[in-house]
């Protein structure tokens, strides 16, 4: 039905007859000539209908937006004055010779030109129309190119695409599982996987050596802007490879993606330990485009009379850190108050500050509400430590180390944006040497997941000092976004049992939940390591989309509903009987449609 | 950790030092020399340990099956007398210089050498070990090659890989949906998709033009040998393409697959109408390797005194068909009785037969219990119609046409096997021109699905004569197996509404279930058509596996359970409260583990 895609017609076709199909993007009758912008997935082309073919012209005059039509015509160069440099096909136009309306369109229920006027709900309800917008179409085409390139790389590197089950057993990876009642075993449930973690480890135990899968994962969480109930992972696992080798392979893959699809050379990714990332950036996924850094000053303020500094400075778990902001001395008291509120969100009780009005004027050049607690020597040492210059402001966080990291890390990002400090377009890095465990509520939690191997210690050493153990884990971070993360896995049963024990998982619970994994570790499990990338987030970053919903064809709302199909919906009562379940508490229909 | 895969070591490496990792497939101490068969996913290689390196030899002597080890050694040619032609690496062996036990193995809970001794349950419980068997490993590697080749073909033909939701709305496609309770909207349920049918149609409405996805689909059915609760489709949809074009593209894809992966040229696929397939083979997925055909003889027996023939022969919905079997006259009465029982399974009330002992001897040469009802002229005309020869048997089915097709179609397949008649290895074809609807229980059912377009008729014509309408649908059949099926879809609202009406779907029900589709058809929907292949079945056929479970990494049992992870399992009561559901009837644990 077509000879070319609309967006592909160009100078080389001038003089040729083409047949195009697509949608009426816009149609205008300008002084007896109809100008039709015809759109398909590859782009737009201008078609011109003159009145000298009256029957065709009449059809052209009757076109309305989003009619699906077939056009036959001859390509011609536009006069220089009418060349449209903003349009891929802007050097040519098609002189229409024939026109068939394939399918008419009623007036649309949402605006195609000013889609900002459409509510998110409207956009999702009429998703098939929203996806016609070239911006949305191009994002999904880009996503398809990403998965295609990823697969090509992994296929050519000996990775096998192996499917793992969607109907599986609940795994305790933090978030809530979606459950699926079993009809055969009434009262029992499958869970949708939060990741194929255990299955990919089992595949390594089977000897598949290199596995990948681009796979849906599921979390029944209260949604945030960048979360969806179902999301997609590029899931990778390897045997007999070290963490260095896994990082090298996957870095090469991502570098290739950026080169091929964005013509960007990411260069070699630097590696940074988790310790350094937390110390310098207050984050385990630092945005390195932001030049601001946290500078530790606890040692300088150990003996001051100011309790806010002195307390944390003398607490083994405390921290006092400064961020200096070029040109920050211009901040008003009101602006500083706003930043103080901002760090409050992250648990900081306040935000001490110090303006450097004149670095050469001693204490007279410094303006700060905390100046009265500090002597000249201490102030000088702080200024020296942060290498302060005239016109800067220094902001201080003092609290438990985790609060300082979180609050000052967030403040750093906000200052970077507010002062437009970001440098460079793409700044990737690896964060490595994570702690194995973190303590909360008096018990240990796995920082990655309970199958992550420690870096060097034996099972006995780990049991003795869980708090200091470093894991053989790695996160790939780009522009402050965690693109993916992974680790070397435990491949010895005694180590796995030790980790479960540290995490407070009883033998009985371990047996019930992971019995098959512990059993599998008995039969010659190879050393293995892997990584999973968040595909949605990766595509979001690469396309510059601001919402994860803009890189998925049919996302859910933030309340996990689909306005298009009206899912979830009421079930057939007979089917519930067959499943052996009953609804104990139902939202009213009115509540749902709100 | 390795320089080569075990299975890849060959003559070209003779003299080189190699480092291999893998599993001990077998280890024998033969007269003071240890022969170790080391296995990885690519194959086996023989490693020899001499006692002249005592420390290494001692380790080698201690090896047991399925230990995971690292071997260093030098490749050498085997003496001619020891070359193993059955082994890819059979011309060489590795003289071991070092040996590290990476991970030991306890004695295995199932037999690796005689896996037939393992029950299906055992194989699934220790799936990670069952998958180590080279036969299983190779099947999954082959499956990965299939998906990779499919993707390469579709990518290079402009198809976009677009993901559709797994948490979606119930669709009435015959089978039962798996339900997923919603926590946000208590009492409401998502359904797991039986196919992405409606979403892929919506993507065409969005203008994506060419879509594909290799995607999990779900059916909560009572399982048969070749069914699984979750299975995988190669799902394809196109806009602006005719059925002929879709068939040409997908045929090219499958032909390419067979060429690339099996070195088989399938040639051009013949097309056969549904009518012809039912008439000649009693099946809409005929196995063309089988030379037997059904021959209609109703017109010849219209006036006989034999009610079994006469009734169906004079019934507009009846049929009388014969199958003649070369060398069939040797069948004993007992064997014929077995076949009579066999067709009884398919609803046939009996099986008339006629042995041709001597074709030249007139009625004297014919042996048949029904001979007494037929005169010489009729017998002659039947013999002439089926072109009978001495030594053949002719078997008759007479009943309603659908019963004859089913029973005689099944009998044809059984006779083909029993008499070893199959010719040729691969016999593909397209079956086309299906009826739009079939009647059962006094109402119409869609033969494909309710979104399938009729071939030529208008909505009004279809409404007037639903029984005679032919759909623009097509099934790809190979060796009697339906590899895939598809159709041109309805792209006009009046046609879709007419089909719903014929199917007895009320306006209200249509609105509730497909309101979004009917709405979407208003806004310039393009003509579109697609197809879906059953990936599991395709891989099964290509690898010669006899069970769908043998081409999936982690299948479920026939009662839809996973003995490996013990899914489904009991849910956390608190989670059920959060979901607003309650279990009304639970299997006892003992029942489940049965």
UniProtKB/TrEMBL annotation, chains A, B:
Top enzyme class of this protein? ligase
Is Nucleus found in the keyword set? Answer: no
The entry's cellular-component GO terms read: cytoplasm
Molecular-function GO terms, alphabetical:
aspartate-tRNA ligase activity; ATP binding; nucleic acid binding
Its recorded reaction(s) are: tRNA(Asp) + L-aspartate + ATP = L-aspartyl-tRNA(Asp) + AMP + diphosphate
**Matches recorded under PROSITE patterns:** AA_TRNA_LIGASE_II
Recorded E.C. number(s)? Answer: 6.1.1.12
Annotated ATP binding lies at: 219-221, 228, 482, 534-537
UniProt KW keywords? Aminoacyl-tRNA synthetase, ATP-binding, Cytoplasm, Ligase, Nucleotide-binding, Protein biosynthesis
Q: What is any one GO biological process for this UniProt entry? A: aspartyl-tRNA aminoacylation
Query: Which residues belong to any copy of the Aminoacyl-transfer RNA synthetases class-II family profile domain?
Result: 143-555
Q: Where in the cell is it found?
A: Cytoplasm
**What family classification does the UniProt entry report for this protein?**
Belongs to the class-II aminoacyl-tRNA synthetase family. Type 1 subfamily.
Subunit info here reads: Homodimer.
Protein name from the UniProt record = Aspartate--tRNA ligase
Taxonomic lineage: Bacteria, Pseudomonadati, Pseudomonadota, Gammaproteobacteria, Alteromonadales
């Amino acid at each position: 039905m077509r000879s070319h895609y609309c967006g592909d017609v160009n100078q080389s076709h001038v003089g040729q007859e083409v047949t195009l199909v697509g949608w009426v993007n816009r149609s205008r009758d300008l002084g007896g000539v109809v100008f039709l912008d015809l759109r398909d997935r590859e782009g737009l082309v201008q078609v011109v209908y003159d009145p000298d073919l009256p029957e065709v012209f009449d059809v052209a005059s009757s076109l309305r937006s989003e009619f699906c039509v077939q056009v036959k015509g001859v390509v011609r160069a536009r006069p220089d004055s009418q060349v449209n440099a903003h349009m891929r096909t802007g050097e040519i136009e098609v002189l229409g010779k024939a026109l068939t309306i394939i399918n008419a369109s009623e007036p649309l229920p949402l605006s195609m030109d000013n889609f900002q006027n459409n509510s998110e709900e409207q956009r999702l309800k009429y998703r098939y129309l929203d996806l016609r917008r070239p911006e949305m179409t191009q994002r999904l085409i880009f996503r398809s190119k990403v998965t295609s390139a990823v697969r090509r790389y992994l296929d050519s590197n000996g990775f096998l695409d192996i499917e793992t089950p969607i109907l599986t057993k609940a795994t305790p990876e933090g978030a809530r599982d979606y459950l699926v009642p079993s009809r055969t075993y009434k009262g029992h449930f499958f869970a949708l996987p939060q990741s194929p973690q255990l299955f990919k480890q089992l595949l390594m135990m089977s000897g598949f050596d290199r596995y990948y899968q681009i796979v849906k994962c599921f979390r029944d969480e209260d949604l945030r802007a960048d979360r969806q109930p179902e999301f997609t992972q590029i899931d990778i696992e390897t045997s007999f490879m070290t963490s260095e080798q896994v990082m090298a392979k996957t870095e090469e893959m991502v570098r290739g993606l950026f080169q091929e699809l964005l013509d960007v050379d990411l260069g070699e990714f630097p590696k940074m330990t988790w310790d350094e990332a937390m110390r310098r950036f207050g984050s385990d996924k630092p945005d390195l485009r932001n030049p601001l850094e946290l500078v530790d000053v606890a040692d300088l303020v150990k003996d001051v009379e100011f309790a806010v500094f002195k307390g944390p400075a003398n607490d083994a778990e405390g921290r006092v850190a400064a961020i200096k902001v070029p040109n920050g001395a211009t901040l008003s008291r009101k602006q500083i108050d706003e930043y103080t509120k901002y760090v409050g969100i992250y648990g900081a009780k306040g935000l001490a500050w110090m303006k450097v009005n004149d670095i050469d004027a001693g204490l007279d050049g410094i303006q700060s509400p905390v100046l009265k607690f500090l002597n000249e020597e201490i102030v000088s040492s702080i200024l020296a430590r942060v290498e302060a210059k005239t016109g800067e402001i220094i902001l201080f966080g003092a609290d438990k180390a985790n609060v300082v990291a979180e609050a000052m890390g967030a403040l750093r990002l906000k200052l970077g944006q507010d002062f437009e400090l970001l440098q460079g377009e793409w700044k990737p890095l690896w964060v490595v040497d994570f702690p194995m465990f973190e303590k909360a509520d008096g018990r240990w939690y796995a920082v990655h997941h309970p199958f992550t191997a420690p870096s060097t210690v034996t099972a006995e050493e780990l049991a003795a000092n869980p708090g200091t153990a470093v894991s053989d884990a790695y996160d790939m971070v780009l522009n402050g976004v965690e693109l993916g993360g992974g680790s070397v896995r435990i491949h010895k049963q005694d180590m796995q049992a030790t980790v479960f024990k540290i995490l407070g998982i009883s033998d009985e619970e371990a047996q019930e939940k992971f019995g098959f994994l512990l059993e599998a570790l008995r039969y010659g499990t190879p050393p293995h390591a892997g990584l999973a990338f968040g595909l949605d987030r990766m595509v979001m970053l690469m396309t510059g989309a601001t919402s994860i919903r803009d890189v998925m064809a049919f996302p859910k709302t933030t309340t996990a509903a689909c306005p298009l199909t009206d899912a979830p919906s009421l079930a057939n009562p007979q089917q519930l009987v067959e499943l052996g379940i009953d609804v104990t508490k139902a939202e009213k229909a009115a509540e749902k449609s709100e």
